[in-house]
Amino acid sequence: MTLLGMAPAWAAQQWRVFGTGARLVAPAGTDLSTARQRIDLELAAIDLAASRVRADSEITKLNQAAGATVTVSALFADLITVALGGWCFSRGCDPVRWSAAGGSVGDSGTC
Fold first, then answer.
1. In terms of CB atoms within 10 Å, which end of the chain has fewer, N or C?
2. Burial (CB count within 10 angstroms: exposed 0-12, middle 13-18, buried 19+), residue 60
3. Per the domain annotation, does 68 fall within a domain?
4. DSSP state of 97
5. For the whole model, what pTM was predicted?
6. How confident is the model over 67-105, as pLDDT tens digits?
7. What is the residue range of 35's domain?
8. Domain assignment present for 49
9. How many domains does the chain have?
10. Which positions ≥6 away from 21 have C-beta within 8 Å?
11. Which of 17, 20, 58, 56 is CA-nearest to residue 40?
């Protein structure tokens, strides 16, 4: 509830992306189509940079370089920085593999 005693009105869209769900929520009256277009452009750039299944992605080109120097985009460098931060924070735990094995973050064990 707001200070005026009225619940705020929201608009939302949901869709599938990268094998999971995405949800855009904004105050009622927001142009969701413009917001969604901006999100889709950013997600397309992330896909081009980091998709392990795309032959034209930066990560594929990096893997194919076999140790040679490769110039990467600022976005790809940011994605690697965030991924390494998550790896350091979790002490190297892969939560996807850990949960598939029946564990959860916080359990005694590798996570």
1. N
2. middle
3. yes
4. H
5. 0.71
6. 899 999 999 999 999 988 888 887 777 666 655 556 555
7. 10-100
8. yes
9. 1
10. 14, 15
11. 17
